[in-house]
């Protein structure tokens, strides 16, 4: 079968690889669409970072992941084979994939987070398409049945490929403590910032303000439902915050990972408010904890998602799929994934929200 594999920075290749075996507790998936994530671009440019670093050794003894790595973790697919011990799934069923691999996948005794249902921060956490032999940029992949997320009737495979990044946003909102009727500000209008904006409004936010320097992404934020957008190069973010929200936002979501946006997020929330970090940082940031102490502001962060977050996203897609589909800026074939996908994002990042790689499409 064909698969896109990472060898080193700027070296992705479409290879012929053997079809994986399907175990008793696994299912074989025919991949339909896979989104290109910001983390995929990061690895493409300067990796391996979170991908395996040594092509001769497994990255961990639970997954056996090693280079060359099949990438891709924003997946929609159809089941084509079901292991003999799998219950509740059948051939022909359409699914998305919860890419987080935890102790349930490993057959390991559950760690403390897994015992508490927080599988996204398992002591042995890894991810399909990142540090596992299986990844989405392939004609087929085999996953544990616990990773499956059923796609509701009426939701296309193309739209369902957005479930994973939307689940990241849904998890961030849930973990932030956001409540209906509150005000929020989102720093960054990339794929996750746009998803945050869309889901915050869907959850009943009174006002969502988005700060972003790229004009094309400000338009994407407006399309996602932002009540007000601001370019910090042209307007003072805090002035706009105070104009719209009085003493400040209830929650600020930092989706850029820059010192300037982090500082602005700290300043933009009101006394007792919450700053929630969604970004993966290129380098450490500085923090004056007196700002938190004096205002009893809370600094929180989140990692990936759980089944609860996918459930919420699928409910949203069932009713608002057409609103989400406009986040897809391009669909490219696997054979052109590097040139028309990865390189296109690198060279024209602000023009795109989400590029999908099509494997078998709406089969």
From TrEMBL:
GO molecular function, one term: (R,R)-butanediol dehydrogenase activity
Entry superkingdom: Eukaryota
Cofactor field: Zn(2+)
Domain Enoyl reductase (ER): 8-357
This protein's GO CC annotations: cytoplasm
Protein's name according to its UniProt entry: Alcohol dehydrogenase
Signal peptide: none
PANTHER family associated with the record: (R,R)-BUTANEDIOL DEHYDROGENASE-RELATED, SORBITOL DEHYDROGENASE
Single GO biological process annotation from the record: butanediol biosynthetic process
């Amino acid at each position: 079968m064909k698969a896109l594999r990472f060898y080193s920075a700027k070296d992705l290749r479409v290879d012929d690889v053997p079809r994986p075996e399907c175990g008793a507790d696994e299912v074989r998936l025919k991949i339909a669409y896979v989104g290109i994530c910001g983390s995929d671009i990061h690895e493409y440019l300067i990796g391996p970072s979170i991908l395996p670093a040594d092509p001769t050794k497994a990255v961990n003894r639970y997954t056996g992941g090693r280079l060359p790595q099949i990438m891709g973790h924003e997946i929609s697919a159809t089941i084509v084979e079901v292991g003999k011990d799998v219950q509740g799934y059948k051939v022909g069923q359409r699914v998305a994939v919860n890419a987080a691999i935890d102790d349930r996948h490993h057959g390991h005794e559950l760690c403390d987070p897994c015992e508490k249902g927080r599988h996204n921060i398992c002591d042995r956490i890894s991810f399909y398409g990142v540090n596992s032999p299986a990844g989405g940029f392939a004609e087929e992949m085999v996953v544990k049945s616990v990773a499956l997320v059923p796609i509701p009737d009426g939701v296309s495979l193309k739209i369902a490929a957005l479930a994973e990044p939307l689940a990241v946003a849904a998890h961030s909102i849930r973990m932030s403590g956001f409540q209906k009727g509150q005000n929020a500000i989102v720093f960054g209008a990339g794929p996750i910032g746009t998803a945050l904006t869309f889901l915050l409004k869907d959850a009943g936010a009174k006002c969502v303000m988005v700060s972003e320097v790229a004009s094309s992404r400000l338009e994407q934020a407006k399309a996602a439902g932002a009540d007000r957008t601001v370019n910090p190069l042209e307007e003072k973010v805090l002035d706009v915050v105070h104009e719209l929200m009085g003493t400040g936002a209830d929650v600020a979501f930092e989706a850029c990972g820059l010192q300037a946006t982090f500082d602005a997020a700290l300043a933009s929330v009101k006394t007792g408010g919450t700053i929630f970090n969604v970004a993966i940082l290129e380098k450490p940031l500085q923090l004056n904890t007196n700002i938190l102490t004096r205002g009893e502001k809370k600094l929180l962060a989140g990692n990936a998602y759980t089944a609860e977050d996918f459930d919420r996203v699928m409910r949203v897609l069932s009713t608002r799929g057409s609103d989400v589909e406009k986040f897809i800026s391009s669909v490219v074939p696997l054979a052109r994934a590097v040139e028309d996908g990865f390189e296109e994002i690198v060279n024209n990042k602000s023009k795109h929200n989400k590029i999908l790689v099509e494997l078998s499409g709406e089969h």
